Each structure stands twice: as C-alpha cells, then as structure tokens.
Amino acid sequence: MSETINYQSRAELLVHALPYIQRYQGKTIVVKYGGNAMINGVLKAAVIQDVILMACVGIRTVLVHGGGPEIDEMLKKIGKESRFINGLRYTDGETMEIVQMVLCGKVNKDITALIQQAGGRAMGLCGIDGAMLKAVRKSDDDFGLVGDIEEVDISLLNSALKEGFIPVVSSVAYGLGIDSGKPLNVNADIAAAKIAAALGAEKLVLVTDVQGILRNVDDPNSLIKTLARSELDSLKKNGIISKGMIPKVDCCVHALDGGVKKATIIDGRVPHALLIEMFTDEGIGTMLTSVV
C-alpha cells in the first residue's frame, strides 16, 4: 500500500507541473547561475538537472554564469591581489587574461561538460563568440578593462537553441571603441539581463545565495513574494532594498525595462530551486514584474 501511495504522490507532482510546462513550452528562460550553487557539488548537480529538465520539456533555456571565486583562486595562485571598486573587479591587463582564461575556459567548459554528462546538450559560449556581447569600457571610474554592454547579437544563441542546445554563456565581452576586438570584463548579472531582453525572454531567474527580498533582513519569514517595478524605488529609500541586494534588483530592472515579463531572485542554496520556481504555485524567492 505504501508503494502505491508513493507512486500516486509522484504522479500528482507531475500532473501539478503540467500547466506550468504548457505555459513555458516554447518560451525563453534565461538563468543567471552564481553563488554557492556553483561551488557546492550537490547544489551544482541539482541546477544542472533542473536546466536539462527545463530544456527537455521544450523550454528554450539559456544559462549565463559568473565565476568570481574561481577567478580569485587563480589570482591568488599567481600572487595577485583581487581588488574591487564599488563591487566591480578592477581589471588590468593581467587580470583580464585570468578572467578570460577562467570564465571562458575552465568554468564555462566545466559547466558544459556537466550538462553533457547528465544527458543534456550544451554549447559553451562567451560574449566574444560571434561578437555576441559588444561592450565599451566604463568611463565613470577607472575600473580598468571593465565594460558596459552596448549591444547583444542573439543570432548565435538562436541558432544554438533551434538545434536543441542549452547555450552556456560566460560574461566576457567583445570590446568596441579604444578596445576594439579586445576582451572586456562585464558584470554577469547585467549580461544575463541584457541577453534576456534581447531574446524577448519570458523570464529571467537569478540563482543567488539569498532567499529573495526580505522586509526585515533579520526575519527569514518576511520574504516579499511579489513586487511590481513601481514599488522598488520606495523600498530602496526605506532601506528594505540595500547593500548587496541593490545590484541584484538593478539587474532585474534592466531586464523588465527591456521587455522581459518577469524577473525572479531565488535561493540557489535550496536544492532544485529552479524547478520549484518554474513548476509550482508557490514558487520560491521574490518575483519582480513590470505590472504597476
């Protein structure tokens, strides 16, 4: 009897997910993959499985990743100190070589290989490929070889998606202007937002190390489940959105203002958080919408 109940529970889970599978089938979802879920083996495996399942049920899934800890580790190995200005990595020529090597090489290909190993079809790309992400060097401060994305060419992404691949994109851009043809380091969250907008994505999902936006940072039960774009300024003024949450919210705003319907900040420390967000009524984290 217990086995029958177990089978029934599994069947009910699948039936419950059906409307969401139908809703997102054929739609584009961009996932920004970062935080502890990139380091912890169990969480990493869960994200890979989630992404493959999404692709298998017909969701056009694009995975954009960072790799800050891996860059820090490699810089430490060569005796170079990591330096940040307003949360952005100062990137001189030597650091840029490390960033390109680690992000476009090791991290990108490791993720691509994990997807392949788990039965998915992945294509590892960076913003230089096909000049997908075109950027100009930041001019407001001396960040070194750090760029602002000016343009996204989605032709390569669309070709990969059409052929059934999961594009895995690292955040190194093709330089314009004084850096024409050279690599520039760009923020992975903003890269994901810009890609989502250019693809006309249904949704951007940020996999992070936080629950979402809390009304009280000391109370995990104060999670704000849904927010409209119009509410964000007052929450910033009141200090509810502050510190490290500001760039995450700004990333979501970039996506919403670019035409993406929804942007969600989810806790990647929860195994299979992506599936919970995509295929359940409750979802997980904080969902931001452009609806007033």
List keywords for this structure.
292 residues; alpha/beta; Carbamate kinase; two-stranded antiparallel sheet; 9 helices; 13 strands
Question: How would you portray this structure in words?
Answer:
The chain has a single domain (about 25-290), classed as Acetylglutamate kinase-like (Carbamate kinase), CATH 3.40.1160. About 40% of the residues lie in helices and about 20% in strands. The chain has helices at about 1-25, 40-55, 70-75, 95-115, 155-160, 190-200, 230-235, 245-255, 275-280, and strands at about 30-35, 60-65, 85, 90, 120-125, 135, 145-150, 165-175, 185, 205-210, 225-230, 260-265, 285-290. Strands 1, 2, 5, 6, 7, 8, 9, 10, 11, 12 and 13 form an eleven-stranded mixed beta sheet that branches. A two-stranded antiparallel ribbon has the order 3-4. Strand 8 (about 165-175) and strand 9 (about 185) form a beta hairpin. Helix 6 packs parallel to helix 8 (about 245-255). It is globular, with a radius of gyration of 19 Å. It starts with a helix and ends with a strand.
